[in-house]
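DM from R.C. (forwarded with permission)

"hey, sorry to bug you on a friday — could you get me a structure for this? deadline for the figure draft is monday and I only need the backbone to look sensible"
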Amino acid sequence: MKDRGFRTFLTVLAGLAVIYFGSAGRSPEEGRGISGGVVVLALLAALLVWHLTRPGDKTVK
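My reply, with the result:
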């Protein structure tokens, strides 16, 4: 169950990283904030990290 906390941490970190890097390159005349596309990319990145860090099958035969 300790793995779930680490998975959640990595998932949130991936989403925030996409939002940070997606909004850092905007020019001043475009205004501040994030676009809807960046939010969608952040959600997709978070879902990908959640999927890739799921625990494997640990059964021993």
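R.C.: lifesaver. The helical segments are 2-24, 36-52.
me: no worries. The chain has a mean pLDDT of 83.
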